[in-house]
Design brief:
- The complex is a heterodimer.
- By secondary structure, chain A is an alpha+beta fold.
- In chain A, 12% of the residues lie in helices and 29% in strands.
- Chain A folds into two domains: 37 residues, no CATH class; 361 residues, Immunoglobulin-like (Sandwich).
- Chain A is globular, with a radius of gyration of 22 Å.
- By secondary structure, chain B is mainly beta.
- The chains are: A alpha+beta, B mainly beta.
- The interface between A and B is large, with 85 and 81 residues.
Chain lengths: 459, 472
C-alpha cells in the first residue's frame, strides 16, 4: 500500500527485494516473518539521506510557575488553594514555555512563568526536527538546582544521547541549553517529559504532547494519522492527560519533601486544565491582557473539540498521569486506529523486521465509544461528526473520564463536578467553521478568529 | 539430583550447549567450573554462577518440589522485609519462586511441602485439568482456598498436563489476597514442541514467535507493603523472643484497607538491585536479575524475548525506553487469529506497545529489538548538533560520555562511570511513576535497564571488550 512512502525509497526497495528473495521456499504466516527477520541482518543505510523536508527547529524552556484550578473547586486546606500562590492562581507547578523566536533576554524573562501542558511538538515523518531545551531555573525554589531533559516517550530505536534519561546520558543545568535532534520514522502520537527526578518533574508539569505526521500527507494535501488512506481526517485535536496531587504541589512550593508512594491525585487535567476550564478556547500566554481569563494564562490549551457536520475528527490522546483512564465519548462512535504510535488498521507493518515489513499483520482497529489508556500510553481515534440536529448553534457531545475524577465532593456541595477530565465535542452545521490549518486550532465564532495552541505556530 | 528434588537439571547435551552459550561472556574460569556440570541451583545463590537472563529450573521427569517457607529479602534503601515464598527442592527460601520450565505435553508433578504456620495451596491460572493428590481441584470455601491446601508440615501433590506452550503464573490459592502479596508466587514456562536451529527458540508453536535463545528474559512484577509484612512477621512470632513467649495469632490477619505498597519489584528486586546478576551473593534470597541485554539488530537478527507476569494486585503500565515491546502472546496464548485473515486464513494480531500494560494475573510475551536506525558515527555520520562541554551539562553514571555506540569517553569530574565499553543503557519501568520509587524516592522500584552493546565489529573498531554488565 503506502509503504513506499514510509522511508526513503531506494533503500527500502533494495531491502524489500532482499527480503522477498529470502522468503523463497518458506510458507505460512510465521515463515514469512521469520525469513524477513533473518534476512534483515545487513546494515541498513543511513536513514537521513535525501530527506526532502526542511529542518524544523524549536526552543522550549523548563521553569516553574503558578496555575489555577477551577474557581469553584473545593478547598483542601492548607494544600489547596496554595496560600503561597499569588492571585489569581491556586497551585504551584513546573511548566514549559515555547521560546521559539525569542531573544535570549526574552527567553530568561519566562523564568517563573512555566505553563502546563507544554507546547505541542510535532513534525513530519523523516523530518530533521531539533528541539533546544533551555533550563531557565526555578523562581520559587532557588535551593533546587535540578537539571532537565526531554524524554520523547515512545520514540522507536532511540539512542541514549537523545533519550533524555539523566542517569544514562546527559542533562542540561540551569542557564544552559541542550539540543535534541529527532528524525522520526514512525508516525503517530507520543508524549514528552522531563526524566530528571522523574516522578516529581513529570507530576509537577514538565510534560507535553508530541506527534509525527505521516509521509502520506505530502501526497495529495489530505491529512492522515498514519500511512493508510483509512486514517484520513479533517480536524485534529491532541490531548495530554495529567493529574495534580495537591499535597505534592504544596510540598514543592513550601520546601517540603514528598513521599511519592503516598501519591493521590485530586485534580485530573486535560491539556493542563480541569473542567470546566477545559471548555475555554486556546489562550496566548504572551497576550497583554486576558481579562477574566488571566487565571488561565499559564494553562493556554483548550480541550474543546469543534467540527462541522460530516467532518472526520482525529483525537490524539496521551496519558502522563499515574492513573488509568477510561475516556468516554457519549453519542458518537469512534474508530480506534492507533495505539502507542502504531497503526492498528489492515496492512499494518511488522516492526520486528528492519525495515518494517508492510502488510504482515491483521486489522486490529476497533469501533468503540471509549478509550482506555494507562500511564504512558497513547491512542489515536477518528470519528465522523454526526448530522447536525437543526436546533441551537451546535450539538454538544460530552467527552469525559468515566472514572468520574471530576467529582470531588458530595453531590450537594458547592464545587461538585469541578476539577476533572471532561470536555465537549461541538458539532456545527456544514460550512460553519473554516478549514482547520493547524493542530488544535479552535475557531472563535463570536470574534470570527482562530485561537491557536502554543507550538503550532508556523516556523 | 533434579529428578528427586526439582533442582536445576538440563535435558540432554543440546540443552546444556544452549544453556552454556548464554553465559559465553563469562570469564573462562567460570565456564571451566560449569564444565563439571554443577549446574546452578536458584535459591542457593552461594556457589551458583553469576548470570543474566531467565534461569530455568528443570527436571527430567517434570517433577518439582516447592517448599513454602519464610525468609527475608532486602530492598535498595536498606530495608529488610519478611516474606513467604517458595524454595526449590532442598534449596533455601527465595523470592519469587523458582522459574519452572517444562515442555509442551509434559505430565507435570509439583509437590508442595508446607513449611508455613498456615495452610497453603498452589493454583496455576491458565492451566486446565489440574489435580491435587489425584483429585480434580475443587474450591474449599471453608478454608478460603481455591485449591486443596497443604496443612502446616503437610504436603499436597498437584499434577497436570502442560497442553499449551506459554508463560504462566503459579501462586498460592489459599487466603490468596494475603498469601500472594506475602510472596507466594512464581513463574511456569511451557516450551513449545516447535524447535528451531541452534540459537533459535520459539515462544509458541508458530515461527513468528522466534527469538534468540541466548536473549530470553523474564519480568515478574510485584509490590510490597512492608508494614503488612512486618505485621505478619510479628503475628507468627517469627524471630520474636520475649518473656513470656510470643503466642502466634493463627491465621495471621491484616486489615487490607490499610494496604499501602512502598516497594515495587521486578523478579523480586527493586532498582538498582535488579540489574545485578542472577545469583548475586549480595541478594542471597533474591536470585533473579532483570537486566535486559541485547545487541543491535544487525548483530542480533532475532529479537530478545521478555516474559512479563503480573503477580501484583494492580495493573502495571510498563514502559520500555528505546523501542516498543511487541506483544506476541497474552495469558499463555499466541496472538494469531487462526481464521481472521482473508478466506479464513490465519492473521497475526500481535501488537506493539510503548506502554506495555500488564493486568493482575496476566502474562504477556514481548519480542524486543533495538535497531541502530540512524547509524550515527563520529566520522561518517555525526549527530550534527553541538555537544555541550563540561560547564554546560550534567552526566549520569551509566553514560559512555558519547552519543556513539562503542565510543567511551570520560565523564565529568566526580561522576563515577559504570559504563563498560561504550554500550547504551535504556530505562524500562512502570510509568505510574510513584511505582518507580523505593519508598517514595525516585529512581528505584519497578525499573530496570535495557543494555545495548556495540556490535562485535564496532567493539573491535574502538578497542572495546563488552563482557558482563554493571555489578561485575
Amino acid at each position: 500500500m503506502t509503504d513506499q512512502l514510509r522511508r526513503f525509497t531506494s533503500r527500502r526497495s533494495f531491502l524489500k527485494a532482499a527480503g522477498i528473495t529470502a522468503v523463497g521456499g518458506l510458507a505460512g504466516l510465521g515463515g514469512v516473518e521469520l525469513a524477513q527477520r533473518v534476512g534483515a541482518a545487513q546494515h541498513p543505510a543511513t536513514r537521513l539521506v535525501a530527506s526532502p523536508l526542511k529542518m524544523k527547529e524549536m526552543h522550549i524552556g523548563f521553569t516553574d510557575g503558578f496555575v489555577s484550578m477551577p474557581a469553584a473547586a473545593e478547598p483542601v486546606p492548607p494544600f489547596f488553594p496554595d496560600p503561597g500562590a499569588p492571585k489569581p492562581f491556586t497551585s504551584y507547578v513546573m511548566g514549559i514555555r515555547n521560546l521559539t523566536g525569542m531573544t535570549e533576554a526574552e527567553m530568561f524573562g519566562q523564568k517563573g512563568h512555566g505553563a502546563i501542558t507544554g507546547p505541542f511538538l510535532f513534525c513530519e515523518e523523516g523530518q530533521d526536527f531539533r528541539v533546544h531545551l533551555h533550563n531557565l531555573g526555578l523562581s520559587e525554589r532557588g535551593d533546587l538546582i535540578d537539571s532537565h531533559t526531554i524524554h520523547w516517550h515512545g520514540f522507536p530505536n532511540q539512542i541514549v544521547y537523545f533519550d533524555g534519561v539523566p542517569d544514562n546520558s546527559l542533562a542540561v543545568p540551569i542557564g544552559r541549553e541542550l539540543i535534541y535532534r529527532y528524525i522520526p520514522e514512525d508516525p503517530g502520537t507520543y508524549m514528552y517529559h522531563c526524566h530528571v527526578e522523574d516522578v516529581e518533574h513529570v507530576h509537577m508539569g514538565l510534560t507535553g504532547l508530541v506527534f509525527v505526521q505521516p509521509a502520506l500527507n505530502r501526497q495529495n494535501g489530505n491529512k492522515y494519522a498514519y500511512n493508510d488512506a483509512a486514517t484520513q481526517y479533517d480536524r485534529e485535536y491532541g490531548f495530554l492527560l495529567t493529574e495534580i496531587d495537591n499535597h505534592a504541589h504544596f510540598n514543592d512550593r513550601h520546601v517540603q519533601d514528598t513521599d511519592w508512594s503516598d501519591y493521590k491525585a485530586a485534580f485530573r487535567l486535560m491539556n493542563g486544565r480541569a473542567y470546566p476550564d477545559t471548555l475555554q478556547l486556546n489562550l496566548d500566554p504572551t497576550a497583554a491582557s486576558l481579562g477574566a481569563l488571566e487565571r488561565l494564562r499559564y494553562q493556554p490549551h483548550s480541550s474543546l473539540i469543534q467540527a462541522n457536520e460530516g467532518e472526520k475528527v482525529l483525537i490524539r490522546i496521551s496519558n502522563l498521569g499515574f492513573e488509568e483512564r477510561s475516556m468516554v465519548l457519549s453519542g458518537i462512535e469512534m474508530n480506534l486506529i492507533g495505539r502507542d504510535a502504531k497503526p492498528l488498521t489492515a496492512g499494518r507493518p511488522d516492526y520486528g523486521v528492519d525495515p518494517p515489513a508492510p502488510g504482515g499483520r491483521g486489522d486490529i482497529s476497533t469501533k468503540t465509544y471509549r478509550l482506555d489508556l494507562g500511564p504512558g500510553e497513547s491512542r489515536d481515534a477518528i470519528f465522523v461528526a454526526p448530522k447536525f440536529s437543526g436546533s441551537g448553534t451546535a450539538d454538544v457531545y460530552p467527552f469525559y473520564d468515566r472514572g468520574y475524577g471530576f467529582v470531588n465532593k458530595e453531590a450537594t456541595a458547592a464545587g461538585d463536578g469541578f476539577g476533572g477530565q471532561r470536555t465537549e465535542v461541538r458539532v456545527y452545521p456544514k460550512n460553519t467553521l473554516p478549514a482547520q490549518t493547524r493542530p488544535n486550532g479552535l475557531y472563535d465564532l463570536v470574534k470570527k478568529e482562530w485561537t491557536w495552541a502554543t507550538g503550532t505556530e508556523p516556523l | 539430583m533434579g529428578d528427586r528434588d526439582g533442582t536445576t537439571v538440563m535435558r540432554g547435551r543440546a540443552g546444556v550447549a544452549r544453556w552454556l552459550k548464554r553465559f559465553r561472556w563469562l570469564p573462562l574460569v567460570a565456564v571451566g567450573a560449569m564444565g563439571s556440570l554443577m549446574l546452578p541451583t536458584p535459591g542457593a545463590a552461594q556457589g551458583a554462577p553469576l548470570s543474566e537472563g531467565m534461569v530455568c529450573t528443570t527436571s527430567n521427569t517434570a517433577s518439582f518440589l516447592l517448599n513454602a517457607s519464610s525468609g527475608y529479602i532486602s530492598t535498595p534503601d536498606g530495608n529488610s522485609v519478611f516474606m513467604w515464598g517458595y524454595a526449590s527442592g532442598s534449596s533455601s527460601f527465595q523470592y519469587p519462586g523458582p522459574v519452572l520450565c517444562v515442555n509442551e505435553g509434559d505430565n507435570v508433578t509439583i509437590t508442595l511441602k508446607n513449611g508455613l504456620p498456615v495452610p497453603t495451596s498452589l493454583v496455576f491460572p491458565g492451566l486446565t485439568r489440574v489435580k491435587a493428590d489425584g483429585q480434580s481441584v475443587q474450591l474449599d470455601v471453608g478454608a478460603n482456598s481455591l485449591s486443596k491446601p497443604a496443612q502446616p508440615n503437610g504436603t499436597v501433590t498437584y499434577t497436570f498436563q502442560a497442553t499449551n506452550p506459554g508463560t504462566f503464573l503459579y501462586q498460592s490459592g489459599t487466603d490468596s489476597e494475603l498469601q500472594v502479596l506475602m510472596g507466594l508466587v512464581g513463574a511456569l514456562v511451557v516450551r513449545p514442541k516447535l524447535k528451531g536451529a541452534s540459537g533459535t527458540s520459539y515462544v509458541y508453536d508458530d515461527p513468528s514467535t522466534a527469538y534468540d535463545s541466548n536473549r530470553e528474559f523474564i519480568h515478574v512484577l510485584t509490590e510490597i507493603d512492608p508494614h503488612m509484612h512486618h505485621a505478619i512477621e510479628l503475628a507468627t512470632c517469627t524471630n520474636v523472643s520475649t518473656t513470656p513467649a510470643c503466642q502466634p495469632q493463627l491465621p495471621p490477619t491484616y486489615d487490607m484497607t490499610k494496604y499501602q505498597p512502598r516497594y515495587w519489584m521486578i523478579n523480586g528486586r527493586s532498582f538498582p538491585d535488579d540489574i545485578t546478576p542472577n545469583n548475586s551473593p549480595a541478594l542471597p534470597s533474591q536470585p533473579y536479575g532483570a537486566l535486559v541485554h541485547v545487541l543491535p539488530k544487525t548483530a542480533q537478527p532475532l529479537p530478545a524475548l521478555v516474559r512479563f507476569l503480573n503477580a501484583g494486585p494492580v495493573n502495571y503500565p510498563f514502559h520500555p525506553h528505546s523501542n516498543h515491546d511487541s506483544a506476541i502472546g497474552v495469558d499463555g496464548r499466541v496472538l494469531i487469529n487462526p481464521t481472521g485473515g482473508q478466506g479464513g486464513t490465519p492473521t497475526n494480531t500481535s501488537f506493539d506497545r510503548f506502554g506495555f500494560v500488564v493486568a493482575p494475573g496476566q502474562t504477556s510475551d514481548a519480542l524486543f529489538n533495538w535497531v541502530d536506525a540512524q547509524q550515527w558515527d563520529p566520522q561518517s555520520n555525526p549527530i550534527g548538533v553541538t555537544q555541550p562541554g563540561a560547564q554546560n551539562r550534567t552526566d549520569g553514571p551509566y553514560w559512555s560520555g558519547s552519543p556513539y555506540l562503542g565510543v567511551k569517553l570520560p565523564l565529568l569530574n566526580g561522576i563515577t562511570q559504570w559504563n563498560q565499553c561504550g554500550e547504551y543503557y535504556h530505562f524500562a519501568h512502570s510509568h505510574a511513576l510513584f511505582q518507580a520509587t523505593n519508598y517514595g524516592t525516585s529512581g528505584g522500584g519497578m525499573l530496570t535497564l535495557i543494555r545495548v552493546d556495540p556490535p562485535p565489529d564496532v567493539q573491535k573498531k574502538y578497542g572495546q571488550n563488552c563482557t558482563g554488565g554493571p555489578g561485575y
